[in-house]
Q: What sequence folds into this?
């Protein structure tokens, strides 16, 4: 019988090994799979993918000194809309914005897809509590991470029905309309 001593070095090596086993997608791999003005949204709700791996989005991002709006859609009418209002939001890198159901005017995320195209039935969610992280934002790429809680439309005031959401958006050469902010101030 072999006995393994749990020395500090062994524990550190084990932790480093486990830290390398992550399910987070590789941004560069996603980016290289896209064409200009294409975005990939890898989003899971309660650890289940919401959009298919094949789904590719296009859209635009509009920014000004007090606000941000990203609107991305695919060919099957799936969509995601991210909006927030915050003075000088672009001055911190990465930008970080909290989302709460108590103040939807400050920040909101709408997530949807068409599940029955014949009868025009969709599945949609609102973020009720969470975070928006804009990790990279420039003319070449935008990388946005989302995490928190979401609710189906109509259930946002019932916390017992909320679901866990986690996702990343990688947008290659995004269409960005900027008003009142120079590229030097905005991009990173």
A:
């Amino acid at each position: 019988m072999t006995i393994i001593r749990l020395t500090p070095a062994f524990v550190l090596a084990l932790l480093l090994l486990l830290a390398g086993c992550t399910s987070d997608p590789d941004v560069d791999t996603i980016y290289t799979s896209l064409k200009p003005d294409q975005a990939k949204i890898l989003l899971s709700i309660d650890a289940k993918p919401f959009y298919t791996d094949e789904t590719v989005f296009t859209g635009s991002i509009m920014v000004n000194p007090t606000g941000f709006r990203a609107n991305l859609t695919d060919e099957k009418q799936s969509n995601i809309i991210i909006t927030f209002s915050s003075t000088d939001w672009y001055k911190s890198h990465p930008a970080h914005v909290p989302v709460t159901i108590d103040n939807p005017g400050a920040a909101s995320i709408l997530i949807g897809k068409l599940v029955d195209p014949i009868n025009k039935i969709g599945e949609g969610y609102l973020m009720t509590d969470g975070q928006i992280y804009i990790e990279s934002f420039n003319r070449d790429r935008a990388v946005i991470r989302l995490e928190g809680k979401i609710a189906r439309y109509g259930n946002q005031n019932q916390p017992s029905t909320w679901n866990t959401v986690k996702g990343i958006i990688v947008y290659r050469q995004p269409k960005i309309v900027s008003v009142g902010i120079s590229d030097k101030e905005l991009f990173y």
Summary: Residues 8-22 have pLDDT under 50 and may be disordered.
